Amino acid sequence: MSPRTEFAVAWLLQYQEIYAERSPNSEESFIHLSMRVNVYDTYKEFCLNNKEDPISYKSFCEIWNIALPDRVARPWVSIPGKCFTCAAIDQIQKSPNSKEAVQTACKNAHLLHSAGMIKLERQR
């Protein structure tokens, strides 16, 4: 393995350790596949800022598939998980006053949340 590839693997594993979504019920963590281009852009920017030569997007995707095979996407389930955001979305969706449009919006919000794109703040 070339030094560039070793650096990319180490960077991706470190990124996963810091930014991946943690499963509430296990030690697994996930970075959704829809985020792969954004993660690559972050990697490339990091390399350029540190005078490193980034690997190609194709090579990055190959490393992603090998280094994070069980951490690339959380499978979609009809029951939200137990994190605060999922619980809040689930509560709104199951409200007796919830109309079909609200339920659809909740489902879409949960999909965005699962992809790491939205997160509700806990009220204190």
Secondary-structure map with pairings?
Layout: H1 3-19, E1 21-22, E2 29-30, H2 36-49, H3 57-67, H4 84-93, H5 100-114
Reported for the largest beta sheet, the result is: 2 strands, antiparallel
Q: Unreliable stretches, pLDDT < 50, 5 or more residues?
A: 71-78
Classification by helices and strands: mainly alpha
* Count of helical stretches: 5
DSSP summary, beta strand count: 2
Form type:
elongated
| Order of the strands making up the biggest sheet | 1-2
Beta-strand residue percentage: under 5%
Give an overview in words.
The protein has helices spanning 3-19, 36-49, 57-67, 84-93, 100-114; strands at residues 21-22, 29-30. The protein is mainly α and 124 residues long. It folds into two domains: 3-67, no CATH class; 78-124, no CATH class.
